[in-house]
Amino acid sequence: MKILEPLCGSGRFLVPFLERGFDICGMDLSAEMLTKLKEKAPTAKVIQADILKYDSGEKFDYIFICSGSVSLFTNMKMCKEILQKMKCLLKKDGKFVFAVETVADRCPDDLDYKTLISVKTEEGYELILKMKNYYDEKTHTQYSPSIYELYAETKLIQKEEMDFQTHLYELGELEPYLYEIGFAKVTVYSSYDKVIAENNQTKMFLYECSF
Description:
Layout: E1 2-6, H1 14-19, E2 23-28, H2 31-40, E3 45-48, E4 60-65, H3 76-88, E5 90-101, E6 114-120, E7 126-131, E8 134-136, E9 141-152, E10 155-167, H4 175-180, E11 185-189, E12 204-210
Parallel strand pairs: 1-2, 1-4, 2-3, 4-5
Antiparallel strand pairs: 5-12, 6-7, 7-9, 8-9, 9-10, 11-12
């Protein structure tokens, strides 16, 4: 069976699959992430590509997008195009599995940045991550702007800002579109133990789709 992991990153999931003998291919847009993956698994089959433009010419028995990565696509038009793309890459009777974050995972709104992590680097610098959260009820978008600061003792020597966003889903929000694009069976679980999702009181929905 052929497996595809889009958005495979540095191989946190792909490498263990490969080590267990599975025929798996990874795809990611980040050359840096794929370089790290190849350092861990030089024989891994990986392709650098945009998820919407990827076309290997083959179809897969099993496709998975892990760790709620689908929630990172807060532009819902683009998100639906990506799900359509996964359907096109799937063999008949294959399975597409992905997880999303839910409204139960909403963070409290913050008035100002809070320090989340402070670590010492091998070189003796201090790296600090600051973040604040606010939620848009209308779009179901969790905004989490972040600031990374690097200090040499008390002197700030480098600063980087990131605008991190996630779409938080409600049960029933994605299902109609998955059926619309051609999946015949869509099952939604509330955990990796495959407990059927019955409400929004879970921090993850795990979708298993086939046609």
